[in-house]
Amino acid sequence: MQFNNLLLLLLFVHFTILFQDNILCVQGSTHHYRQNDQDFDQMKKIYTKLFVFGDSYADTGNNRKSFAGSWKQPYGITFPGKPSGRFSDGRVLTDYIAKHLGVKSPLPYRFMEYAGKRIGSGINFAYGGTGVFDTLVPNPNMTTQIDYFEKVIHSSVFIKSELQSSGLVLVSLAGNDYGDYFAKGGTNQGLPNFIATVVNQLAKNLKRIHMLGAKKIMVTALAPLGCLPQSTLLNSFQQCNSTQNTAVNLHNFLLQQAVSKLNNETKDSSFVILDLYNSFTSVLQSKGGHPGSLKFESTLKPCCIGITQQYSCGDVNEKGDKMYKVCSDPNSAFFWDSVHPTQAGWHAVYSNLQPMLQEIL
Question: Residue 297: inside a domain, yes or no?
Fold first, then answer.
């Protein structure tokens, strides 16, 4: 995405002070997280089902095999050893949230017909490439995903009771709406209004999920989009694009306001923000270094990359020749491709999120 520097500088002046005080991004709450193991074990017992909505940061196999690059080699080479529909070399955010709950990753929605009425550890409705609104990727947007969810609930009293008694909801937003906005001719001048429109619709979606019976709903703050390889490619993966991240800050600031309003309306603190922005930033700044882990050799450069700019990870030419190259060790890189973290990257992000998860659940 290309942003106008002057416009975003003005946005930065207007919103940064408020943003730092209110969200960047919910960091203040992490300083007082519970350290009582008994409390943590009890949390695991309370939430035994995970219901997921969103995009490729959370998708574990809903995309059609004939359509999505996530079903092509070399995706999945770390886990499960072959492509599984995850946009990574291995596990993604959903898998680590499920791990935190002590349950298996929820079943992708498109496999529901094989599961009968019992849903095991939940259902994953997320589709890679989608957003709050329709995008150029012809997959169900978040509203349609919630339609699927409502249909499943109405068809099974069993699922509705589990949602109300032990269900946790994860809503993932990775910024596809904004890439799509510019791809469809959106202007820099119209961006702030569009950001507000996205957040307003997202808030409506969160409220609807709550009305369907969900008691605890986590929604991700946007990760620093200016640090994605698709943004840092132009400077040889040397530094993040600060102007893009300023626009991300506006989104996250408005999201914090929307979530606070929802909690005031429901009076039960059902909605919480999962701080991907600070989690990503912390890992990138420290190169993943924390006790018991290895630092990333590469933070902004992806492990899997097209041999020229016209190709992406997993692409082949008409002869079937690989038009991409993969680093020797995916564990050494934070990013897998131009947008998505490696399994090791997600694990590092999850490690940073653990205190917050323990607090907000």
Answer: no
Both tokens of residue 25? 């991004």
Residues 133, 102: Cα–Cα separation, whole Å: 32
* Residue-wise pLDDT tens digits, 243-286: 999 999 999 999 999 999 999 999 888 999 999 999 999 999 98
Structural element, H or E, at residue 169: strand 167-171
Whole-number Å distance between alpha carbons of 105 and 98:
5
Dihedrals φ, ψ of 107, to 5°? Answer: -65, 130
Active site residues: 56, 337, 340
CATH number at residue 45: 3.40.50
Residue at 108 is within a domain: yes
Say what the alpha-carbon torsion angle 316, 317, 319, 321 is, to the nearest 10 degrees: -40
* Count: domains in the chain: 1
Coil/strand/helix, residue 27: helix
Helix, strand, or coil (residue 218): strand
Determine contact, residues 124/112, Cβ cutoff 8 Å. no
- Record the tokens describing residue 7, joined without a space: 């416009």
Tell me the per-residue pLDDT of 157-210, one tens digit each, with 9 for 90 and over. 667 788 888 899 999 999 999 999 999 999 989 999 999 999 999 999 999 999
Domain span including residue 186: 5-277+343-360
DSSP 3-state assignment of 167? strand
